[in-house]
Design a protein that fits this description.
Number of helices: 7
Largest sheet: 6 strands, antiparallel
Structural class: alpha+beta
Distance between the termini: 78 Å
Shape: elongated
CATH superfamily of the largest domain: Kinesin motor domain
Strand content: 15-25%
Number of strands: 12
CATH class of the largest domain: Alpha Beta
CATH topology of the largest domain: Kinesin
Length: 316
Amino acid sequence: MNVSNVKAFVWTLPNPELLSERDEHDHSNCIFTKQLDNDEAEIITKTFDNRRGDFYAYQKRMEEKKRIFEELEKEIKPNTSIEYIYFCVTDRDCYDMRKEVSRSNKSVIERGIDTWMKKTNTPMDIWKDISGGTQLPHVLKIKLTDALTKRPGYLYIFDLLHPRFLSPTLETKRGSVIYSSFQAIRHLVDLVISTNNTYDIHTAYNNEVWSSLLVPFLCGFGKLLVLGYLNECPKKHKVETLMALDFIAKMRCIKSKSLPNNAILKVFDTETIADNERKYKESQVTIQEMKTYVDEILVEKSARETYIEQSWSVNQ
């Protein structure tokens, strides 16, 4: 078993050609400044214009995602079975991007996201499906099954897009964001990295789609890589930017375990188990009856052979 910490990286928006000063202000109190030798603060970049900045961040995310699919396309073995699911997930409901159908959070939690898996031919076929992007927080799950060993492997891409640390206001709630779901995720992270005894604390994570999807990784039962995209001069969101950096630092404290065989967790169906046990007992009775029948045939065969030998001796 390989044990390592969660890896986390922060991407900033440093391209001055794409970023422009939206509201001129004193940058001395901004977060991303650094002290030079002459003790003068150098502003790394200016605050970005909403349209240009959002587009740059979107473009950056899509470039990173495309690289993932390009690497999969090169490394994947021939005849590997490929399946995927592409869902948008908000605090209220889910949306199947492939079928363009809304799903309730309750149905996704009860049935599991794998219910709507679809087979495809190559990783780039998946990229063609998702390259249009979305303004909703989303999850992409890819299942790769080796043709020879039939052993599956999974790749998840979680994009929380614009999660809110503070309760949304009229200004910050514009667009599709997640708040209550993200609070549950933050609570789970705090429990995982806590040095206090938390074994007696019950956390109902399975009533949130995001929590139920992320809990295996937040608890360290899978490799997790965290990428954060931040504005380098967040005038209006300074508090949330600091909270985001603190949250990313916490996630780096999570220990990840890499096992040779993934544990497949299934919900036990008592009726199915009882039915399987009944069928097993019936099969054992049938096998015993067949053995008795075969024994009777062998006894009869032996008796006939003995009779034939005795008859042959008398005739001689």
